[in-house]
Amino acid sequence: MAPLVLKASFKGLFFMTSCTLIFLKITFFFVTFIPSTTNMMMHDHDHDHHFDMKPPYDQSQEISSPDHISTHHEHDEVLRVLHEEKPPSVADDRLGMPPGNDSNGGPEILQVVMKNSSQEVVHDDGHMSARGSTTSKVKPLNNREVYHDKDIFLENYKEMNRSLKIYIYPHAKNDPFANVLLPENSASPGGNYASESYFKIALSMSHFVTQDPSEADLFFLPFSIASMRHDKRIGVGGIQDFIKDYISTISKKYPFWNRTGGADHFYVACHSIGRTAMEKAPEVRINAIQVVCSSSYFLAGYTAHKDASIPQIWPRPGVRPSRHPSKREMLAFYAGAMNSRVRESLVRTWINDTEIGVHQKRLKTPYSESLLGSKFCLHAKGFEVNTARIGDAIYYGCVPVVLADHYDLPFADILNWRSFAVIVLTEDIAYLKTILKKSVDSNEYLKLQKNVIKVQKHFQWHSKPVDFDTFYMVMYELWLRRNTIRIL
């Protein structure tokens, strides 16, 4: 009996020892391994990151099987870097704080930059080299350059002009919905949503269009959401069904949509209703490239870096007006309808200020004098993050101040917005005057304003496209998003 008890005791001891060892191993795993993988997944904020442009398409990558197609375009995430700045502990009026504001916190300024981790190498000495791009030069990072990398942009821009091909789904002039599917007859569209019409007109007459779908990099879905709104046969309530039926039609009539699930297709829309237009055609929202004005990271229908932001620009023919910075006497200007909490907060905070001119409704007089007479022009989100105010500010040489969190700024893959705009978190509206006056006092404003003049050409439509204008910038954004594997 004794040996049996002893044997059972040894078994129990062995079992307890084994369990203890297993527990210690699991504990060691969670203590050491898990934090290290978390660190691996975190962004390195010790350096500024800039987006490195995608290299030209390599014909050697062509394959003939659709089974290997990925609907992910060669584009990485946006890195939003928050720089915290605490105001000095002096009286509110010296801080530029509005009367009666007691806030103790400092402003966090939202900076938007781009990163492509597969092509960019940032070295310990703060220099960047491009891996797999069209150039291998090593350059110091410069936050005041208008372009993330001008040499790469120009080289890729040249390649885009040479090689990019777009196939537009054809429709006859006698099509019952020709008004929705064909470019406008007018060479000079107007209104807030003119960007959509200008793009269709410009693309239809450009050298990018091909009649041979086998050589196309991208396929254009030519429906106009703005036109559907005004068509009594469709209207706002019928847009979703129209798009669903349109996708069904082209997928049955042509093979191009089905072979990639729409990943090499795109459409353009500037009206905010465009973000709900794809509810009954989710494959468009998920796979296709959406070139839209409503480009917020937190809109259900927008996917940052698959989709692209297009600026809302009023057409303005004639000579662009200008005014020297020293003649711009007002610190900042804003006027607009009170259709968001951001705008309400802005007006409530600064309505009585003598240097920041804010108005709680649209002006009855032309905006041009206020835009020309101000150093900074405020873009405060309304129903959507997008408005024409950024385009207005740039046109009149006024430094844009963006008060719209999570806004995928137009042409952010190309342009370094920090070099010509001030981007402020909406929660820091109370610190606005401090931020802007600091920029003026340090002469930073003069550098920003000089760069605004440099980027003006990128924010203008022409009846016939001109190199580097808005049309060509949108085409470059599309070129970056083209599939790197072409289906034959």
Describe this structure in words.
The protein is an alpha/beta fold and 488 residues long. The protein has three domains: 1-42; 162-315 and 464-480, no CATH class; 325-459, Rossmann fold (3-Layer(aba) Sandwich), CATH 3.40.50. Helices cover 34% and strands 13% of the residues. The chain is built from 15 helices and 15 strands. A five-stranded parallel sheet has the order 6-7-8-9-10. β13, α12 (389-395) and β14 form a beta-alpha-beta unit. 38% of the residues are buried. Residues 1-11 and 28-141 have low confidence and may be disordered.
Task: Describe the secondary structure blueprint for this structure.
Blueprint: H1 2-41, E1 78-84, H2 92-95, E2 108-114, E3 120-122, E4 127-130, E5 138-140, H3 150-163, E6 166-168, H4 178-181, H5 194-204, E7 218-220, H6 225-230, H7 235-253, H8 256-260, E8 265-269, H9 282-287, E9 289-292, E10 308-309, E11 330-335, H10 341-350, E12 356-359, H11 368-372, E13 374-380, H12 389-395, E14 399-403, E15 422-423, H13 432-441, H14 444-455, H15 470-480
Parallel strand pairs: 6-7, 7-8, 8-9, 9-10, 11-12, 11-13, 13-14, 14-15
Antiparallel strand pairs: 1-2, 3-4, 4-5
Run of helices and strands: HEHEEEEHEHHEHHHEHEEEHEHEHEEHHH
First-residue to last-residue Cα separation: 81 Å
Whole-number total of structural domains: 3
- Unreliable stretches: 1-11, 28-141
Q: What oligomerization state is this entry in?
A: single chain
Total DSSP helices: 15
Shape: globular
Radius of gyration over all CA atoms, rounded: 27 Å
Which class best fits the helix and strand makeup? alpha/beta
| Biggest sheet record | 5 strands, parallel
Strand runs, count: 15
Strand content: 5-15%
